[in-house]
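Onboarding guide, step 5: your first structure request.
Type a short instruction followed by the sequence, for example:

Predict the 3D structure of this protein.
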Amino acid sequence: MRVFKADFCRFFAIGFVAGALLVLGMTGIGGAGDVARGVVPNAIAAPAR
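The system replies with structure tokens like these:
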């Protein structure tokens, strides 16, 4: 007896690919850098003593 049936693995893979294409379509190829800049602020070093 297999832990996961073949249908489950196939639908999981299809859903993963469809979700990845949806995210890629929403952000665009170079949009990942813009998203990261909006979430994480730029690092600023403290002045040396």
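Each response can be followed by summary notes, for example: The CA atoms of residues 2 and 28 lie 39 Å apart.
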